[in-house]
Specification:
Blueprint: H1 5-10, H2 12-15, H3 21-29, E1 32-36, H4 42-52, E2 56-60, H5 85-96, E3 101-105, H6 114-118, E4 123-126, H7 131-144, E5 148-154, E6 157-163, H8 171-174, H9 187-190, H10 194-213, E7 222-227, E8 232-237
Parallel strand pairs: 1-2, 1-4, 2-3, 4-5
Antiparallel strand pairs: 5-6, 6-7, 7-8
Helix pairs in contact: 4-5, 4-10
Amino acid sequence: MELTEEQILRYSRHILLPEVGGGGQAKLLSSSVLIIGAGGLGSPVALYLAAAGVGHIGLVDMDRVDLSNLQRQIIHRTGDVGHPKVSSAREKIALLNPDVRVSEHQTVLMAENAREIAGQYDILVDGTDNFAAKFLINDLAVILGKPLVHAGILRFVGQVMTILPGKSACYRCLFREPPPAGAVPTCSEAGILGVIAGVIGTIQATEVLKIILNRGELLSDRLLTYDALPVAFRNVRVKRNLRCPVCGDHPTITELQDYEQPVCITPALS
């Protein structure tokens, strides 16, 4: 793939990097990423991947923009209140970078549609706020063999983990199954410092770019946690569980299943 003169100028700061160059930028333009959730995490992920020139971005979200979203969901504007989040996000991406093709999936990702939607993309990004979605997305990535960048945020804390099916630990290696309904507080109950979504979302976007470019060390087999109050990052090593029900040597979960959970989770930081 040859870059146009306009693209050479647009991505010049990437091209100057020996780790990227023209070939790496061409890889970005030829890649596809599915962002599940166009909210707090999905907003910075989508904006930075679009700015970087990721050629095809898919957005999955059934919700409409609410005024309470704007404190952290930076891809949306006041005038977008009431509009579908996927449409609002697509409009901002188009304004930022016309090189990027955006596909809207205004739906809930569920067992019955997950394979069809995710099958169109190279990499999955979890920008959701509930355990039901996170376990479904993890299982989907493992079953399809697609890299997944997981994250979770609440209050002043966040976490990120990259999952490489067949090579690294998955989300279920850490947490075998969703907690009982009502066992954790919701965002509306516990609150969230809006900028936490930006910190964690940009780390997710960085992981995606590193996967595409095949550069650097990924957050695989480790959970990166961040606490804004003491400004503390911590790496928690994670081993692949050979008895994991989805990625273990003898998996018992081979088909996708839905879970019933309330939205908004507390990151399970240990």
